[in-house]
Amino acid sequence: MNSNRNILVLDDEMSIRESLSDFLEDFDFHVKSAETAEVALEIIKSTPIHIAIVDMRLPGIDGNSFMVLAHEIRPETKFIIHTGSVNYHMSQDVKKVGVKEEFVFLKPIGNLMTFVDAINKLSAKE
To answer: Which candidate among 77, 83, 106, 110 keeps its CA 20 to 30 Å from the CA of 16?
Structure first.
């Protein structure tokens, strides 16, 4: 049962954000979504988010900076990176907030169950 898990989907592409949010809701996750890091940070301030799925290239604050700022607000939040950048390399700051290479996924993801599996893995580590 996932109904006690709050998931945040941060992606500026509406179709990705909505399809992923809808998919995760089908698995009983409580899902919030945001199209910018600024909006996502407001959500993090008001809601305990367990796991955030984060796009890297965003208008305004980028995904890397978002994870560092979100970690300052809620250190217990874990992160999954979902990027279209094939050349993405995690910065030391992102590694310091606990992101592991195994939770970096390149777009497009053919099987959205990849996210459910990753969320369950991260949740098991709590």
So the answer is: 77
Helices (H), 3-112: 14-25, 37-46, 63-73, 92-96
Helices 113-124 and 14-25, axial angle in degrees (round to 10)? 60
Domain boundaries, the chain: 6-124
CATH class in words for 6-124: alpha beta
Instruction: Report pLDDT digits (tens) over 85-118.
Output: 999 999 999 999 999 999 999 999 999 999 999 9
Position 125 scores a pLDDT of 73
Measure the CA–CA gap between 123 and 17, rounded to whole angstroms.
21
According to DSSP, the residues that pair with 104 across neighbouring strands are 81
